[in-house]
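#struct-help
A.M.: can someone run this one for me? Single chain, 84 residues.
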Amino acid sequence: MATDDKDLQAGFTGTPVEKTGSATEMARSAVEGLRNEASAVSAAAADHPHTATTLLLTVSALAFAVGYAFGHSAQPARRSRFWN
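D.P.: on it. Structure tokens below:
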């Protein structure tokens, strides 16, 4: 257990580690984080092209299947008459 206030980083009795900033600073920080993650993903895809392709195709196939299932279930019930 922390006996010092210096050991507390956050919580009900501690103080926040990060200072609250303006919305612009927070947005810039978020954009910087997204750019870092995007560059990491692109570097990983460049290093492992077969894995990236397989992952992309798998996610695409799952998205198609879910979309097809939702679209098929959203259609109204068919009537038993042959002219409709």
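A.M.: thanks! DSSP finds two helices and no strands in the chain.
D.P.: also worth noting: The first helix runs from residue 23 to 47.
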